[in-house]
Structure formats: C-alpha cells, structure tokens
Amino acid sequence: MGAAQLVSLFLALTAAAVRAVSAAGARPSEVAVGALFTYDSVIGRAARLAVEIAVDDVNADGTVLAGTKLSLKSHDTNCSAFIGTVEALQLMEENVVAVIGPQSSGIGHVISHVANELHVPLLSFAATDPALSALEYPYFLRTTISDYFQMNAVASIVDYYQWKRVTAIFVDDDYGRGGVSALGDALAAKRATISYKAAIPPNSNSNVISDVLFRANMMESRVMVVHVNPDTGMRIFSIANKLQMMASGYVWIVTDWLAAVLDSSASRDLKDMSHIQGLVILRQHTPESDAKNKFISKWNTVARNRSDISGLNSYGLYAYDTVWTVAHAIDQFLNSGQQINFSTDPRLHDSSGSTLRLSTLKVFDGGEQMLQQLLLTNFTGVTGPVQFGSDRNLVRPAYDILNVGGSVSRLIGYWSNYSGLSIAAPEILYHKPPNSSAQQLDNVVWPGDSTTIPKGWVFPNNGQPLRVGVPNKASFKELVSSGGPGNVTGYCIDVFNAAIKLLPYPVPLKFITIGDGKKNPIYIGIVRMVANNSLDAAVGDFAIVRNGTALAEYTQPYVEAGLVIVAPVKQVTPSAWAFLKPFTLEMWCVTGALFILVGVVVWLLEHRINEEFRGSPRRQVATIFWFSFSTMFYSHRENTVSALGRFVLIIWLFVVLIITSSYTASLTSILTVQQLDTGITGLDSLISSSLPIGYQNGKFTKRYLTLELNIPESRLVALNTIQDYADALNRGPKNGGVAVIVDEKPYIDIFLAHYCNFRIVGQQFTREGWGFSFQRDSPLAEDMSTAILQLSESGQLQRIHDEWFKRPSCAYDDDSQVGATRLGIGSFSGLFLMCALICLFALVVFFVRICWQYNQYSNSDAEDEPGAADADVVQRRPSRLGSFKGLLQFVDKKEEEIRRKMKRRSSDKAAGSSDALSVSSAY
Asked: What are phi and psi of 540, to 5 degrees?
C-alpha cells in the first residue's frame, strides 16, 4: 500500500469518527418524562413504585436509549381534579416529552386539552373511562384496558346467567358515568337493561351511601353492578350488609377496582372480607411469564426495604409497562433523527398582572412524531403483548373473573374480547378459532353461601302492591267480572291468580277496575296506562295484537283466540218437492238430455249387430229410453256387444256414478242443515257485501276490520252485551240491525251457548291469543309466562276452563256447512263435456265404418246381374243404392246379413269367371 493510499484511509477514518462524534452529540444525555398520579391511593402506591423501578430498569438496559438517561418528574394530583390540573400545568413547565398518567379519568378529561395544545402525549395506566378514547383527545393514549371491554365482560356474565335487569351503583363522576354508559350499551346488545342507576356523589359519607343503597334496594332488580373508586368503595359493602343486601338472592358484580384493593392489602381485614362473601369480581388479566414473576419479586423486595405495607396490583403492572412503552418510543424517535425541541406559543402569554406563568408552557415540536412512535409500539411486557389497535386500545383485552369465598378469592373463569367467557386462559384460546358460543364458568358461591343461581329479580316485599288493571265489562261476565273494589272474578282472573301462586316470590296485588260496567272500556287505552306507568299490569281478555305489543310486554298466551263470523240461521221445513232442489233447472235439463243422447248413441252402435236393439219402431224407441234411464240404477237388461258401445257405456256409468253421488249428498244436506238468512258465507263475501257488521265495543276488532280489511267504518256497529248481539242479529239489516257479527272465538262460544239460532260461518281468519300485559321489559312477564306454561303442562289450565265453561245444550258437535247450495251445471261441465266428446268420437268411428261398408256393398251389387232366383230380392232392393235413403236402409240392415250377401256375391262372381273361361277354351 502506497503513502497516498494510507493518507486517504486515514482521512476517511477521521471523517467517520467525526461523524460518529457529531451523531452522538445529537442525542440528548437526558430526556424528561412526567408522571401524574395520587401518591396516597390504592392505585398510586403500587404505580409509583412500579414506575420508579421501570425507570431504573430502562436506564440500566443498554439496548434502549443507549447513551440517554430517562429522567422521571413526578407530581401528586392528591385525588383532586383541580389540584391535578394545576400539577399537570407545573409538570408541563419542565419540558417533558410525555406524561405517564393521569390516574383519574376526571383529570384526564381536563389535562387532555392541555396535551392537545402542547403536543405532549399522555399515557394513562389507570384512566379507564371509554370517553377518553374519543377523537377529541388525540394525544391521550390508554395503556390499560378500557372500561368499554370491562362492561362487555359484565354484560357477558349477566347474559350467561340469563338475567335481564341490573342495578348500576356508581360514583357520579366521569369515571363512573362513562363506565355505566358503556355498560348500558353492552347490556342492550345482550337484550338486557339497566333498570336503575344508583349514583353516589364523590366523597360521600356513609349516610349518603346508605340512602342510595336503600333506594336501590326498593327496586326490583337484585343484580348489583358496582363501579366506584378503590379508596372509598369498601364502605358500600359494609352498609349493604347492614341493609341485608348481602343475603341469599342478591347478585353483586364488581369491576376491577375491588380486585386492586384486595391485591394491595398485605394483611386483609377479616371483618371487611366478611362483607364481600359471594361477590363476583373482575380483574385485568395478565398472562404468567418469567418477566412478570421477576418484576413482582423485585417490587416486593423494594417495597419491603421501604417498609411499604401496600401490595402490588394489576395497575402497577400496567404502570411498569407504560414506562417501557415511552422508552421504546423515545428510542425510535431519536433513532429516526428527530430532535427534542420546545418552542413558545404566542397564544400562551400572561396578561397584565397575571401570576399564572402561562408563558413558561412550551410546545413539544416533535409531539406528533412521538405520538406516532407510541402508536407503533410492539413489544412483550410484564402484562403481555403491548400493542395498540386501530381504535388506539391495547390489543387482546381480557379479564380474570373471581369469586370471593372465605378469606380468598377463587378464579372461576376468564373473559376475553376474542372468545368471551371461558375456563381456559385467553392466551391458550388465541391459538384456536374463536368460539363465542361455548361460554363457560366454574360454579359460583353466591351471597348467603348459596350455590343456587339467583333469579336476579324479585318483587320487593317492601314495595308497593302490584297495580293490576282489570276491564269492567258490560257482558261476558264469565271472563272478567267486577263485584266492587278489589272484588274481581272470572276465568281470566283465576288463571292470573293461579300463575301468581307459582312464582317463587310473593307478589302483593291491588286490582283496579277500569270502566263503569255499562259500556266496555277501550282495551288499548288500558294497555297505554300500563305503558305510562299508571298501572303495573293489565289482566283480562286482552288479545296479543301488534299495536299492544308496541306499548307493553305480554305473557305467553293462555287462550287461543281468533276472529270469526257469526250469522243468523233458520231451520228449513222440507217440502213435497224437496227432492228436486239438489239440482238447478238447467242441471236437470242437461242431465236428461245427456241420458237421451247416450241412449241414442248406444242404440246406433248396437242396432246392426244386437237383436236386443232391433224390432218395431215403437219397441226401438222404448228401448232407447229404457236403456238410458235404467243405467241410473245400473238395472239395464240389454247387453252391449260392440266394442264402441261398451266403451261409451263404461264412460256413461262413471258419469252416472258422479251424478247420483252428488245428488244424494246435496239432498241430504238440504234436508238436514240450517240455511243462512244472509248471503254472507265467509270472509270474502263479508268484504264484498255492503251489509252492516256488528263488533264488540272496546276491542281491536274495529281497527282490524277498517285497517286490514278496508271495510268502511260506516258499515260497523258497536255492541256491548250478549243481548245486544242477539237483538242486532234478529232485527237484521232491514230493521236497523246487523247482518253478521265479527268477534273473537271465545266470545262467540259464550254467545252461542245462550242463543242457538245463530251459527259460525266460514273459517277463523286471524290467529292470536290472550295474554297478560306488563310494562316493557318487566321480568314479571317472563316469570308469568313460565308459570302459564306450568299451568298448561299440569292440566290445571284446562281444569280452570272447565269450571267456568260447561258444554252448552245447544252447541253443535259437527262443523257442517251452514247454508247448503244447489248444484248447477257449472259443477259438472267438465264431466258432461267429456261424456259428449266420447259419444261424438264413437259416432264418428261408427259412421266411417258404415260408409266404407256401404261403398263396398254398392260396388259389388252394381257388377252382378240379377238371376231368377234373386227376383224376390231385387224387388226389395232400392233402385238407387247410392242415395241417402239407400244409405239409411243399409244402416237398418243387420250386419250379419250384409256380410253374408257380400260373401255369396263374391262366390258367384268367381263361379261365373270359371264358366266363361271354359266356353272360351271350347272355342
């Protein structure tokens, strides 16, 4: 290597060294990171120590922030939104590139606006309010699990045990309100609801908490979801225990704040543990790992050295990973060549005389780039994978589900956003296809040391009696009858009382009659009273219809019902000529003509070959009529020998069978059934007519007839009592009455039990049932439905029915058609046409054959010379065999005679030819 080359290599190495020194000088020696949390709190004590350990670990790790020290600047928010805001502003004066915290969701809402202006990312390990994920707070990043997922876990537990109503007990601040709002949405997706919200003001004393819990205990729901702060929440259970709300039948589901309290208590107070027996608790799930165990061991060692009696909870784990998240982001920020610079904002200045020192607040110039690096975080920490999804939340949110029993809390399952409830750890299920249908939890010991799953809802003994509205009707007393205040009877009332007795809890009742007993009340109006909370339930003959279900909740139907038409009928006295009524005049005429036609056709087909169809003209005419009409009784004595004749006869006997069967059935119907006074025989004729229609006042029938069937309201006549029904039908349309009445089948059955001169016409044309009405989403509706099914399966429902409705003497066992009609030609037109075509076909075939024979016969006759022996035949043979008259005469001849003559002529012709040939040979 030459000298010049050595000089060049030396210069290159020198330049590289200079660039390396220059680059090293670009990285700051120290980067300030802020921390905001309440030092003296359950979460703060664990998080403060975890953050300090994390900073030491980062600074000791050469792979992260090499050559740069992470400097922590902590401020105590003192569990106050105002003080927290002030401390946050003071922290921003120290040129921090990120803030770990705040711990409180309320402070987070306020500080996030400051972070937006100064471009300083906030990474909170404890502010779980889902509202902080809004686009309004772009610089807020949650490094723990949002309450959005926790409330979905709570909703999954509620749905798993098939509860429908919960009472939410929460602290009335941003944290509590945000969590309850998310709980309401999650429950709605599971077809459940928050029936009562028990809001506890922040920093409340025991008296205030006791009042809130007392009002919550007055509600129906026994599923309590508690979402409060860890530092004051334990008082709730001691007060609830005094109010006897920790007894059997109650359900307490507590969010992760209680798990933080229990994990942080180094020596648990046995008295406090006795207040929380049977609770179901959620805790953020962190998978087991060597890194987690190593950190827990280090944390416990440092805590013992500091004589810290508080224990580590899951929030401390997330605080530790938050520091590492910031460290990785800063490292990537610096490695990308970015500089940490701050600049003043001209909008932040102190007005004259102000001491707020707003001018000391500076904007982090690289805040946007730092935020992007934070969102790209992807490493495995002590809490598991640390990575943010598109919604800026941590991926794979999961919770442990604990059950408190004795002095410990037992793990009964897990919830994850991936597969829902399970008894297998989420990290195991992540390697399998999601299966949200296989929900499972271990057995739970509920409050009161009960292993029976609580119903989750009871009718409170200390509540007001159930206000039950009952229609006071003018008629149909068998169904509902009012004998005064509190004295209601009837089939519907007995069914309701029997179902109430089957409920596993007592339900005090107070019946309230609606109506004056002279005119039927409007039933949909009573249902509206239930919807408007004027009544708790409506009991009676309430049909389950569409406009009612839009207002209230109905039980399982206990009676099948549907609209039917009832009309007046009369008994018809049979007359001497009743046997002619089955067929109309046209039918009789056509049938008679067809009888004669078939007789003529069979005579034509049989005349030439059958001696029974020959003879004198009088005899032949008599044979035609006798044969045709005797087939009606299958008593014809003439035999048919021709193929065509037998074919026609077979078809004709089939036609006769149909005619006689129809005649017999129609005559029987005419002589036995009743006849309608009107022409309405069913729904179609009801709609097409213009006759007045009666209906029961107050029921849904009028709405159905006008809206669904488009029947003009002018045709409808409102009626109230059974007597009104009978009078209106007896008067008829001509005398101011009605032609028919449309009502539900149970009413009509009662009506027909008293009046036998009316009948149901047509078919039932709607399908609905009667049920009891309750307020929307009332658990009583579901429990009563179960009780009604139990009554039906045990047979008690039928026994109650039999006690009220005995079989009336004038009821009809059969469902025979009312108003038999006469049979016309239209009913048999196809049959008659088929018979006529068969006859025509047979005649055509017959005449074609006759014409062919006649042509052969004429040709053979013209070639022969008559001899002396045939003189007598010549005299009888027509002079013109080709004439129509000759054809008729040919038809009248016997078939056997024609064949014999044609055969003889063929023989004579052959003999003549032989003689002629002999004479020719002689010559």
From this structure: 155, -155
